[in-house]
Structures are given as structure tokens and as C-alpha cells.
Design brief:
Layout (H helix, E strand, L loop, with lengths): L20 E2 L6 E4 L4 E2 L4 E6 L3 E3 L5 E7 L2 E2 L5 E3 L3 E2 L6 E2 L7 E2 L4 E3 L1 E2 L3 E3 L5 E5 L2 E3 L4 E3 L4 E2 L7 E4 L6 E2 L4 E6 L3 E3 L5 E7 L2 E2 L5 E3 L4 E3 L8 E3 L22 E6 L4 E5 L3 E4 L3 E2 L12 E4 L1 E4 L16 E4 L3 E5 L5 E8 L2 E3 L5 E2 L8
Antiparallel strand pairs: 1-3, 2-4, 4-6, 5-8, 6-7, 9-11, 10-13, 12-15, 14-17, 15-16, 18-20, 19-21, 21-23, 22-25, 23-24, 26-27, 28-29, 29-31, 30-32, 33-34, 35-36, 36-37, 36-38
Length: about 350
């Protein structure tokens, strides 16, 4: 018997249905090739007239039709404007236009594990270029990728090249393997640029015995794995850090925080070593300035105020001996800096 099917045949291509792009609208410039419709994957190149430039980084730019949309919309901006900067390992809030006017300022946030080089955190658009563009470099306390361990894999964590200090990752042993402590999973921590010791995954063994060997002897194989999970309890009394406190106590680590007006130097987390000693402790260093007005009578500060404390990087208005007058003092590297004498905080007039 012969069976025939009449009707349409639907063919499905792996790439799916693709869409074409219309010619872009480009003011103050031109592009090639010039046509009304561009098929998917088709490229065009554009440039701008005198006094203008592409909102990219070169004087000519290529854009590609991708499923009905251009990979980036061709546009020409004034030569004094700035295109979006590329900040490796950093982010900033982008605007819809894709370019910035003269005088615009952006703030850059470095990714976790990176910090601002030379403390620069902002950039300003000036004469078509960004000034003091911040650089995000790997933090001295950050860790590189965790070590590869035989018969183990990292779980619940996407791959990344750099991990911020205090990061933690968890390993899981391959089926049929356990850590020396008998578990299948174990955490390690990033402390001061170095990962704590990772697990060793060994083949799980059990007691076995057999009788009836050729010589009539009984053979018994016993495997004993002895190991200790080093918890903070193994090190006894918690270590004291002057001007710092333990703010979190886990099974495997202590987390320290410095008091107000102090800054931490060294690891935030402390672990217990296998020999019963603590890992490197952080220190809490002073991060403030102490101003005693009595020591600076020439500054005309209000007498009887007592010692004023100013946090590192902060500015504080210290009252003058005249009503409504003050002197702004900033604390930088534990040194007090003031560019003005006592001045009126309302009108800004310098005192005689």
C-alpha cells in the first residue's frame, strides 16, 4: 500500500529566521555602501564631516546588521564631545545618547578584587578627551583564580580571574572520593592575597576481608584515614586586636572590624592553623587627626572647644571665636590641612 502526504513542507534552519536592516539615519556624516536595505550580517562603514567625529574611538567605524538592528547606531558628535570610555575591570553609569558633553563627569566603580590606581575615581570630558581616566588594578589583597585540585571541582561559582579579599569558594570531590576528613565538600578563603589550603580528595575506602586464599590464610585489609578539621575552637581563646572587634565568628574563621576612626591593615578574616596557632592578624591603625585649638592661637579658633577629631579624608568646620565663623580643616594622611583662615560659613568672607 502506498500512502501519499499532500500539503506544505516546512524547513527549519538552525539559524532561525533572520531580519534585514534599513539604512541608518546619519547627520553630519556619510556611509558606504549606500543602499536602502541591508541583509543580516551585512556591514557598512561610516565617517563624519569636518568638526564632527564618530561616537566611537576612530575616525571611521564599521557597523553590522544583526537581526534587524545595527551592532551600534552610527552617529556623529561634535569634536569637543567625548565617546563612552572603556574602563577595564571597572563600571560607570552610561547615558542613553552614548556620548558626553564638554564638562561632563563620570564616577568609576572598580569591580570586586580591583582598586583605583592613584586614588582617581572620576573622569571629566574636556576638549574631546577624558582627563585623569581612572585605572582599576588588581587589589594587593585580592586573589587570583583558586588552585586546581585533583578529583575536585568548584561548585556554585562562575569562573573569574580575580577574587576580592574575604571571598570564599567551595570544592566538591569527584564521585567515589572524599576529603581527608571524610566529607565531600570543603570551603577555602581568600586572605591577604592568598587562598587558604584546599582539600585533598582521596578515594573512599572501606574495611574489606576475604577468606579461602590459595594458602588457606585469611586476608584482611583495613584502611583508616585520620584527619582533623581545623575549626576556630582548636586555637582556644580568640586573639585580641587593639581597637578592633570580632564581628562574625564562623566555624572556620573569625571576621574583624576596626573601631570608628581606625582602619584595618591586613586580612579581614583569621583562621586557625593545624598547629593550634592563628593565621596573620590584622592591625587597626589610626585614621584620624586630633586638633587642639589651644595649640593654634593664631588661627583664631574658638577657645574652650577641647580636642576635635576628624576622620581620614573628611573635612570639618571648626568654630572660630566670632559667631557664625568657621575654619574648614581636612585630614589627609593624618595631617590637618586648611587653605583658609577662619571664615564666615554663610557669606564666605575672610576674617580680618
Amino acid at each position: 500500500m502506498c500512502i501519499r502526504y499532500l500539503g506544505f513542507i516546512l524547513l527549519w534552519f538552525p539559524g532561525g529566521v533572520t531580519q534585514s536592516c534599513s539604512a541608518p539615519s546619519l547627520d553630519h556624516g556619510f556611509f558606504a555602501p549606500k543602499q536602502e536595505i541591508y541583509s543580516h550580517g551585512k556591514k557598512l562603514t561610516y565617517t563624519c564631516n569636518d568638526g564632527y567625529k564618530p561616537a566611537e574611538k576612530s575616525w571611521w567605524v564599521t557597523s553590522t546588521c544583526e537581526n534587524g538592528k545595527w551592532s551600534h547606531q552610527p552617529q556623529c558628535i561634535g569634536e569637543s564631545f567625548c565617546a563612552e570610555p572603556n574602563i577595564p575591570n571597572g563600571k560607570y553609569t552610561k547615558i542613553q545618547t552614548g556620548w558626553y558633553k564638554v564638562g561632563a563627569t563620570i564616577g568609576i566603580r572598580c569591580d570586586q578584587g580591583y582598586e583605583h590606581k592613584n586614588q582617581a575615581v572620576t573622569a571629566r570630558c574636556q576638549d574631546g578627551a577624558w582627563t585623569t581616566l581612572p585605572i582599576c588594578e588588581k587589589s594587593i589583597n585580592a586573589c587570583s583564580e583558586p588552585p586546581k585540585i585533583q578529583h575536585a571541582v568548584i561548585i556554585n561559582q562562575e569562573y573569574q580571574e580575580v577574587f576580592a579579599v574575604d571571598s570564599e569558594v567551595q570544592y566538591e570531590c569527584e564521585d567515589g572520593f572524599t576529603t581527608e576528613g571524610g566529607d565531600t565538600k570543603e570551603f577555602i578563603y581568600c586572605l591577604s592575597g592568598t587562598w587558604t589550603k584546599g582539600p585533598t580528595c582521596v578515594r573512599a575506602k572501606s574495611d574489606t576481608g576475604s577468606d579461602g586464599s590459595a594458602g588457606g590464610h585469611t586476608t584482611s585489609t583495613v584502611s583508616i584515614i585520620t584527619s582533623f578539621i581545623i575549626t576556630v575552637d582548636n586555637c582556644g581563646r580568640l586573639p585580641h586586636v587593639p581597637n578592633g572587634d570580632v564581628v562574625e565568628q564562623g566555624q572556620m574563621f573569625l571576621k574583624y572590624q576596626c573601631s570608628s576612626f581606625y582602619t584595618r591593615v591586613g586580612p579581614e578574616k583569621v583562621t586557625c592553623n593545624s598547629d593550634g596557632t592563628w593565621s596573620t592578624l590584622p592591625t587597626c591603625e589610626a585614621a584620624f587627626c586630633a586638633l587642639d585649638p589651644a595649640r593654634y592661637p593664631e588661627s583664631n579658633l574658638r577657645p574652650g572647644l577641647g580636642v576635635e577629631y576628624i576622620k581620614e579624608g573628611e573635612t570639618k568646620n571648626i568654630p572660630c571665636k566670632w559667631d557664625r565663623w568657621s575654619m574648614p580643616v581636612k585630614c589627609i594622611n593624618r595631617q590637618m590641612i586648611s587653605r583658609n583662615r577662619c571664615k564666615d560659613i554663610v557669606r564666605g568672607a575672610t576674617a580680618a
